[in-house]
Amino acid sequence: MTKFRPCIDLHSGQVKQIIGGTLSDSSSELKTNHISKFPSSHFGNLYKEHRLNGSHVIMLGPGNEVAAQEALGSWPGHLQLGGGITAKNAREWIKRGAEKVIVTSYLFPEAQFSLARLEEVLAALSNDVEKLVIDLSCRRTGSKWMVAMNRWQTLTDMEVNQDNEGLQRGIDEELVIKLGDWCTKPVTYAGGARHVEDLDLVKKLSGEKVDLTIGSALDVFGGGSVKFDECVKWNQQQDHR
């Protein structure tokens, strides 16, 4: 069943909505859609109030550990956490309140997928696969989608068998269809959503197999095209069908 899955993106200790392709080591290149006046715990409590399971906290670079802990503390055991997760700290973040940890760049040393590193992370989690989420952020290259790491800056050698992040350019419909065909595990699509009707679109295209994250377009993140309350209502309607 397709569901709305919100996020809490952290950058330099603040909740922000960032245009993904501009996130690099150079602050002069950073472009943001929104910087929230509220702390991360505000959004954690908001998601808790509406029982939005599957919500995720992402640490975009250094200086976000305190804000991440505050978010996790607002709803212990229910928020997923990603950003800088490795075999060394995965178990610690679970102990600190994360429901699951989300891993990307650590699995791709020198931009090449490492099965050994995946096994290391799983071992750190006592081989509990339910505690692990793999984030396959990707960019379209020609007719393919390649996994991107290092804050969307580096393409890896792994093909997903585009970067709409933060741009509100619309859903990549072809990719959503393929995710619905390929995936046997729970999967969430993020990037480009700009209308609440995109939830219906993803539901239809994926055969109800893919969830959707809406970020920059949400009113709680300064967006003007999607109301958070509408997304909550949409989820509730799915529960009663």
Summarize the structure.
28% of the residues lie in helices and 23% in strands.
Which properties best describe this structure?
single chain; 241 residues; seven-stranded mixed beta sheet; three-stranded antiparallel beta sheet
How does this structure look, described?
This protein is of the alpha/beta class. The chain is built from 7 helices and 12 strands. It has helices at 40-49, 65-74, 90-95, 115-124, 173-182, 197-206, 228-239; strands at residues 7-11, 14-18, 32-35, 56-59, 79-82, 98-103, 132-134, 138-141, 144-149, 154-159, 187-190, 210-213. The strands form 3 sheets. Strands 3-2-1-4-5-6-7 form a 7-stranded mixed β-sheet. It has a 3-stranded antiparallel β-sheet with strand order 8-9-10, with no helix packed on it. Strand 8 (138-141) and strand 9 (144-149) form a beta hairpin. Helix 5 (173-182) packs across helix 6. It is globular. The termini are close together. The relative contact order is 0.16. Residues 162-167 have low confidence and may be disordered.
